[in-house]
Specification:
By secondary structure, the chain is an alpha+beta fold. It is built from 16 helices and 15 strands. The strands form four sheets. The chain has a five-stranded mixed sheet, with helices on both faces. Strands 10-11-9-15 form a four-stranded antiparallel sheet, with helices on both faces. A three-stranded mixed sheet has the order 6-7-8, covered by helices on one side.
Amino acid sequence: MVTRSSLEETVLAGLRPSQEEKDHVCGIGQRILEKIRQSGKAEGMVVGSIARHTWVKGDRDLDVFMLFDPSLTREQLETEGLALARSIAAAFTDNYHEKYAEHPYINATIEDVDVDLVPCYKVESASRIQSAVDRTPFHTRYITDKINGLIDDVLLLKRFAKAGGIYGSDQMTEGFSGYLCELLVLHYGGFTPLLKAAAEWKPRTLIDVENHVAKEFNEPLVMIDPVDPKRNVAAAVSVDRMAEFVELARGYLESPSAAFFEMPVSCAITRSTLEDLLRDRGTKLYSLTFRTPPYIEEIVVPQLKRSTIGIAEHLERNGFSVHHAHYHMGLEECMILIELLVDDLPAIRSHAGPPVWNRVNAEKFRTKYLSADLPGPFISGGRYETEVPREFRHAGDLLRSEGMQQVSHGKHIRLAMENGWQVREGGDCWSPAFSAFIAVFFNRRSPLVRHAAGACLPER
């Protein structure tokens, strides 16, 4: 039997959905399932945390899958599945729209419940899936069969991870999914046993509940999917999120506190505070903003990350030392924020050439720069070297130049920037829409340090 502290029991009282809330949400689910049954086109199934009774009070996200005959082609599944999803949603609400993951689905707001209507194939086993979402019904059945007695521990873990800013397998968070939380609690037998084990985790930790791993994985944390031995449930967890979970586990075990379950308040920064901060730090801040591409976060965010790395490397190659760079995908605009240690450079720079004994290339280099107005070529360390004019003396000029299009961007970021981007400096980087992002950009702390300081949750 799982034993919990009085602190955890107090926390749980605020996490468990009331019977009234359960009846309300599950009642909507049953009405949707009846509509699917009446259509005669697919079999309906409620999946996810609501089906598994592992949802936290107030998290009214209802996932309803529509299982179609596996003989349908992918095109038929998308066409028929989307048509059925639309008709089901329309029977309950006018507030619905199409979304796209591996294939299209319908998201609807029915009363006060956020509902996803997702078509998938009704396959015999997870080893015969035809699309990634086909696994989900098997996940639901697996957890439902085994989670009895540990539901409260899952609720604790989910809130613990959310409060720590590490819950969610999306591209921005790179953290722990709900399914992963459930499997971890199952494997270790409760919330506290999990934390005790996690406090000793190291990269390449392997957890194989069913002892059936079928391939090697390179991710920091590996949780073999019990319904698919070729899949790592923890594939999204970055090494930083894993390390943060280890830190949180150690901190809670050493000094349990309700603060570990409390969602931090949102934070922001004013323009004047930002200007004062930059004056005190003596650094230079630049922002690039452009229209957000019309694609889901899972597509845009990895490309934003790639662009941020590419821009930082471009600045470094040109002599501008980057202290910190990060990105944020907003509804209307994306922002890449870059803090530089210096943004003005001398008019010249050194340019290294080949070793003198590399005769052919050395002669070419010497001849090319012989007529330059600047000193050189000269020999240093056995190589030719010379001084050349610097192309960009000011970081803002580089960031506004056409050469920015040659940086390694993702496809959709490149297309967005072809329509133009804005470069701002210092206090001008501030805007109401990005005030929270800018605040945490300058307030980097590990989760345990955030708890101690009462600081803001990171803007992922």
